[in-house]
Amino acid sequence: MAGAPLEAVRRVPxxxxxxxxxxxxxxxxxxxxxxxxxxxxxxxxxxxxxxxLIDSGEATVSVGGxxxxxxxxxxxxxxxxxxxxxxxxxxxxxxxxxxxxGLTFWDFRPLVQGSGPIGWKLLQSxxxxxxxxEQTEHP
Amino acid sequence: xxxxxSLPKARDTAIFGSKAxxxxxxxxxxxxxxxxxxxxxxxVDAVASGEERAIAKVAKSVQRLQVPLAVRSSAVDEDGxxxxxxxxxxxxxxxxxxxxxxxxxxxxxxxxxSDSAITYRQRVGLFTRPSIAVVIQTLLDPDVxxxxxxxxxxxxxxxxxxxxxxxxxxxxxxxxxxxxxxxLDRSGQVLERKAGRKSIxxxxxxxxxxxxxxxxxxxxxxxxxxxxxxxxxxxxxxxSEEIYGPARDIEWAIAGGTLYLLQCRAVTRAGT
Lengths: 139, 272
Fold this sequence. Notes:
The structure holds two protein chains of two kinds. By secondary structure, chain A is α+β, with helices and mostly antiparallel strands. Helix content of chain A is 35%, strand content 28%.
């Protein structure tokens, strides 16, 4: 099947409320993207319109030039850009040959706009994320 | 429509983009264009999505082309904005085999969806889904290549301006050399010949991609076009204006003694 592996998509919290059929619809929209070692995947403060799931390889996350984390297979980044068209909050650089599955804003938006149930479940996921963030800030 | 057609059949810019249709116009008019195919934006999208049927269709269509291949984006965009996206959408020179076309198409699709392309789209108020058609052609191994303006783009004078260098024309387009500079009048009479400093040439390499090669010392400042070749270019300028209209910006190459048209578009910085 074209698209990203179903199980990898299901593990993304944003999609946690979706049923199998809905996850399948989203997984089909992903496109493979390969990066060479050292290549910049996304750049901090740049506009972004794609969400990436790492299939294989490793990538480093840096903010303001200092390295913060390493990402590996199964990790993901950029999911908020799918919704708010906002700028990137970190720079991600391929530390090895990196294979990702990417989902663009353009492919994701029509699916959500055409499906009330998917939209509602995404809203629930976002609300949970917001509540968790608030509890961290004001325990 | 998920279409692949030979260049002479590329007629609709909304499907194949302006670059492909421009080459289609040239091929239909009998101008010397390297053999190639045009891919619609939707089939490029399908290949990038990993659709087996689309991948097989493209693979079959490029089998007849002599390798290596040049895979170039041909943006299908609002208001024919091809020129606006120059530098945003990828061109892959020297794809060494038909089997590697799929990954080349994926790279080109993502070049239009990269963060830098998206940022650019937001900045110019074109925040819409990009549609990327593609042209795949046999990559020439030119002795000499460059650009030609059928009207002087700086002064606006009614004369041909030619800039030329050794090897692939990307050395001229990317400003990697000081190219030889020629001016011709409309009859083909040479008005000026000025040797540049062509220290490097871009050549394709067997394993794929291109390399910058040092030019031998005796060729660095030697004119790379003779009178016969300049006459051929003068005729190509006249014929291109007949087909496309006045004030054209042409990319050309000479390989194996034959002059080829690689691209023809309107001059975007015509003088007064």
